[in-house]
Amino acid sequence: MTMPDSDRSPLSRIRPDVQAMHAYMVQDATGMIKLDAMENPHRLSLELQAELGQRLGAVALNRYPGVRINDLIHALKRHAALPEGYALMLGNGSDELISLLALACAVPPSATNDLKKACVLAPEPGFVMYGMSAQLQGLDYVGVPLTADFELDVPAMLAAIAQHQPAITYLAYPNNPSANLWDDAAMEAVIAAAGQHGGLVVIDEAYQPFAAKSYADHLTRHSHVLLLRTLSKFGLAGVRLGYLLGPQALIAQLDKVRPPYNVSVLNCEAALFALEHQEVFELQAKEIRGQRALLLSALSRLPCIRVFPSEANMILLRVPDAARTFDGMKARGVLIKNVSKMHPLLNNCLRLTVGTAPENRHMLTALEASL
User: Fold this and answer.
1) DSSP at 176
2) Phi, psi at residue 301, to the nearest 5°?
C-alpha cells in the first residue's frame, strides 16, 4: 500500500506533541543592558582571565574527559559540605539533570502501578523545564498554583500529591520567577506528603548564593530528598555545570542514565578554577545582594507598581501595563523579561535581573520613563 504524501514527510516522524510545543526562546541582547536571564553581571579580572586561559589552553582536547572529573566531584563535595553517606552527580547545567531525573523515573503504565503514567508535580508559576522535561520523557505533569502572594498553597499541594502520587515533586528554593523562599513548615508538609507515596522531592537551589538560607542544613532529615544546584548563578552561566546531591543509593541509580562524557574537559577545568577562587565569586554575590537591597528600596518608591520580596538575583514586580513597560525599556536599551503571559498569577508582571550599580541605575531610569 502506498503511503499518502503527507506521511512521507520527515516531519511526520517527529512526535505531534513536540511539533505543537514552543521552543525555549532566548532574547537577542545585542547592544542592550542585559537584565533578563539572572546572570552574574561580573566578569573575571584580566589577571584571572589570563590565568584561566593558560589552564584551558593546556587541556588535552583530544582526549575524552577522565579522572579530572573526579577532582571536580571532590571539589564540589567540599564546596557543598556534603554529608556522610551522600553522593554527587554532575550535569551539563541543571537542565540536563532535570531531564535525566525524568528519564530515570519514567515508569510506563502497568498493572503494578494501576495503569498510571509516572507524574512530575511542581508549584506554578515556576521553572518551565520541570514541565517540559516531563512531557519530553513521557511523564504526566501537574502544576499546582501558588497563592496570590506566591506562597505554597499547602492544602492544594497535599491534595494534588494524594491524587497523582508524583514520582518527582519539585520545590524551587528560591522560586523562579517569584524569587521568594517558602515557609519552612509548608516545605516540610509537602516533603512529608510526597515521601508517604514513595516519591522523590527535588529542592532546586539554583539561586542559593543570594538567599538567606539553604535546605542543605536539613537534607539528612529525609531519605527521599535531593538537592539540585548549578554554577550558573555562582558566576559560570556560560560553563554549563549543574550538580545533584542525595543519598548514595539514589544517586547511584540516577547516575546510570547520565551520558558517560556529559561534562567536557573545558567545563570541568573552568569549574575547578572557579572553585579555587571561590572568594572572588563570594564577593560578587555579596555585591549583588547589596545592589538588590538598593533596588528593592528604590523600586518601592515608584508609584503604581508592586514589588515582591526577593531572595535571588532577580526582582519580580507588577506594573499597570507589562507589555508597554517592557517595550519602553527595550527602546531605551534595557532588556528585561516580560513574564506576564507565563501564568495568570503573573498578570502584568516583569522580572528584573540585579546587575551592576551602573546597569541598575540605567534600568531604574528606563523603568520610570516607561511606566
Assistant:
1) T
2) -90, -10
Grid coordinates representing 281? 565569586
How many whole angstroms separate alpha carbon 333 and alpha carbon 326? 11
pLDDT of residue 7: 66
163 burial (CB, 10 Å; 0-12 / 13-18 / 19+) is exposed
Of 341, 350, 274, 273, nearest to 314 by C-alpha is 350
pLDDT in tens, 100-120: 999 999 988 775 666 678 999
Is residue 33 a contact partner of residue 363, using CB atoms and an 8 Å limit? yes
Write out the three cell numbers for 183: 515557609
Residue 236 carries which DSSP code? I
**CA–CA separation, 346 vs 323, rounded Å?**
13
| Cα(230)–Cα(204) distance, integer angstroms | 9
Can you tell me the distance from the alpha carbon of 316 to that of 296, in angstroms, rounded to the nearest whole number?
10
Q: Write down the pLDDT at residue 28.
A: 85
Q: What is the pLDDT of residues 220-268, one digit of tens each?
A: 999 999 999 999 988 899 999 999 999 999 999 999 999 999 999 999 9
Length of the chain counted residue by residue: 371
What Å distances lie between residue 366 and 32, 56, 125, 206, 326, CA to CA? 12, 39, 26, 28, 10
Distance (Å, rounded) from C-alpha 270 to C-alpha 288? Answer: 22
Q: Grid coordinates representing 33?
A: 543592558
Contact assessment for residue 193 and residue 157, using Cβ atoms and an 8 Å cutoff = yes
Q: Which helix (H) or strand (E) holds 286?
A: helix 278-300
The Cα–Cα gap between 105 and 120 comes to: 9
